[in-house]
Amino acid sequence: MRFCIVGAGFSGAVMARHLAEQGHKILLIDERTHPGGNCHTGRDEKTGVMIHHYGPHIFHTADQRVWDYVRSFGTFRPYVNRVKAISKGHVYTLPVNLLTINQFFGTTMGPAEARAFIESKADRSLTEPANFEEQAMSMIGPELYRAFFYGYTRKQWGLEPAELPASILKRLPLRFNYDDNYFSHPYQGMPENGYTSVVENILATDGIELRLGTSFENIDEEFDHVFYTGPIDRYFDFRLGRLGYRTLDFERFDGEGDYQGTAVINYCDEEIPYTRISEHKHFAPWEEAKMKGTVCFREYSRLAQPQDIPYYPIRLVHEKRMLESYIDLARTTPGVSFMGRLGTYRYLDMDVTIAEALSACDRIDELLAEGQKI
Ligand code: FAD
Ligand code: UDP
């Protein structure tokens, strides 16, 4: 059979590899000039630093299948994301942990004492927090919320936290020990040669034709089925409206030596227009000493316009309703399946993207084995 896969990010690459290994012919297209999707990395010509072109990406997962899968296409070096946050002229560690709490309140509490202290600040009446702000008030209380989350979230989402879902904050842990690992997953790492090399290795098999710089809109060929990892509303020509996204502007600046001493510093105060600064050589600690200079990015968030890269799905109530209508439309449109971050309009981490693509491969095998249509 001959398939078209739209998008050469992790979703499209995993599907392309699997179908090619089953003996099918694949045309994999991407309108960008490189594979890797938003995880794309590349060496900076001037400094040699491995740049994460669409923002910092740290691999983390609890899924053994996904961890084994990615490591079969590249070496992953140990990497733990330890984020610093600046609030009102002081530097803290995130996610909120015992050091953050003791520094912020000027205390020397132990775990049990700190837990009781934060519980005394938290609003216990909010048993089922309905939004981001209520989630914060029920979890950490007003002081930590104002210092670390209120301003940053307004910058990141352009909305009052009370208008956002509680699930956004639930991504972050709260710890009553000194563990400042940003993620709680057992497997974490960074690909030694960058993410694009991992994706290229996934695609290095017979049966896949990779056509870059090519939009699906310009393809005029027949296929047995299309797997579409682009924006679902774009596939349907926005006929039910545009799903809202936040986009990011990255302002690059270069320097000598070490600019900030760590990979990521969040700027939590609203008066500072950017959300964070990332210094990319620190994402590769095994090679940073060899770099001639340093490359940093200030990151600004704003509402995406039609010509902008859609980074974060906003998913407010009316968007979820619009998404439901697009999903209904997709279900009644034969010959195409929607996958990945843009195809399903969800904020998916890389590991979830890969896990979902692997499950989709399993499902397709079952359907084809039963002689059914995809
Ligand atoms: P994408 O990577 O978006 O790939 C889709 C591809 O489809 C794109 O290359 C696009 O050009 C192409 N395309 C779309 N429409 C068309 C069309 N019509 N014709 C041709 N081509 C088309 N995840 C983590 O696990 N850890 C992190 O630290 C992390 N950090 C992130 C930081 C930022 C700033 C962002 C935005 C995301 C982050 N993620 C992180 C999430 C990660 O980027 C996604 O999980 C991953 O990129 C999803 O892969 P995908 O293949 O579904 O989509
Ligand atoms: N957040 C915040 N302050 C911070 C870090 C995160 O207010 O210093 C909020 C913000 O709303 C963000 C959410 O917590 O969107 C989830 O944080 P995460 O680091 O998971 O964001 P992402 O990786 O999606 O950029």
UniProtKB/TrEMBL annotation:
Residues 147-347 form the UDP-galactopyranose mutase C-terminal domain. Its cofactor is FAD. It comes from the Bacteria. Keywords: FAD, Flavoprotein, Isomerase. GO terms for molecular function: flavin adenine dinucleotide binding; UDP-galactopyranose mutase activity. GO terms for cellular component: cytosol. InterPro entries: UDP-GALP_mutase, UDP-GalPyranose_mutase_C. The keyword Transmembrane does not apply. NCBIfam families: UDP-GALP_mutase. Belongs to the UDP-galactopyranose/dTDP-fucopyranose mutase family. This is UDP-galactopyranose mutase. It comes from Acetobacter oeni. The gene is glf.
